[in-house]
Amino acid sequence: MQTLKTEIREKLIFEAKRSFLESNFKNSSMRSIAEASGVTVGNVYRYFKNKEDLFYEVVADAYNSIMEIIDMDHGSSINLGNAGPGIGGYGIVTDKVLQSIINVFIKYRQEINILICRSYGSRFENVKSELESLIADKIHEEIFSRNVYGTIDLSIFTRTLANTCVDGISSICASSMDDEQMQKNIYGLILYLFEGAKFRLLMLEKKLGGDDIE
User: Fold this and answer.
1) Residues 114 and 59 sit within 8 Å (Cβ to Cβ)
2) Same domain (yes/no): 64, 158
3) How far apart are CA 161 and CA 139, in angstroms?
4) What helix, strand, coil percent values describe the chain, rounded to 5?
5) In the predicted model, what is the mean pLDDT of residues 177-193?
C-alpha cells in the first residue's frame, strides 16, 4: 500500500511538472493534473493541500538551491570583465557564485525554466527578479564600480546586462541541448556579454565625455 501511495505521489509530481512546463502555474489545474495521473481530483488533495503546495514540490530543490546562492558569501573575487583561462577550458574565471549559478541551471534545467518563466501567480514569481538583482550586484561590484566620468547611469546598464544574462541562460535551459552543450553555451553567453566590459565602458564614457578616441 505504501509503495502504491509513493507511486501515485511521484506520478502527480511528474504530471504537474509537465503541466507547468507546457502552460504555467496560473493556467494549470488540479483537475487536469489528476486526469493525466489517472486519479480523481479528490485523491490529489490527499497528497497535496492545494496547487501551490504541488508547485512547491516540483520546484523545491531548484528554489532552495537558488536561495542558497543568494544567501551565500558573495565576497569571492570575480573578474568577468577580463576573462581568462578557467572553468572547463572555456575561458571563464572560477568565481564560486557564478559557478554555483551555472551548476544550478544545468542540474535543474526544467525546474528553473518553470520558476523563471512559468511561475506567475505563485508565491515564487519574484525568483527571476531576485536572481537578476544578485547578478546585477556582482556586475556593478566587479565591473562597473569605477565610473570615470559619471556620465552614465550604471544601474540601468547593470540591470540590463543581468536581465539579458538570465533570459539567455533560461532560453538555453529550455532548449534540447545536452549538459555539455549547455555548459558551452552558457559560458559562451557570459563571455559574449562580459569579456572586455570594463574597456568598453571606459571607451563609452570617454566618447560621451567629449574625449577623442583614436
Assistant:
1) yes
2) yes
3) 8
4) 65, 0, 35
5) 85
d(CA 74, CA 137): 10
**Poorest-confidence range of 92-101, 177-186, 204-213?**
92-101
Quote the distance between the C-alpha of residue 26 and its chain's center: 20
pTM of the model as a whole: 0.76
Residues in the chain: 214
Q: What is the CATH classification number for the domain harbouring 33? A: 1.10.10.60
Please state, in angstroms and rounded to a whole number, the distance separating the CA atoms of residues 94 and 85.
9
* CB-CB contact of 93 with 81 (8 Å): no
- The tens digit of pLDDT for each residue in 115-164 reads 999 999 999 999 889 888 888 887 777 777 655 556 677 788 888 888 99
Rounded mean pLDDT of 22-30? 94
Which residues form the domain of 153? 60-208
Q: How far apart are CA 77 and CA 65, in angstroms?
A: 21
Decide if 87 contacts 99 (C-beta within 8 A).
Answer: yes
Residue type, 162: A
State how far the alpha carbon of 142 is from the alpha carbons of 1, 82, 86, in Å: 56, 10, 17
State the total domains in the chain: 2
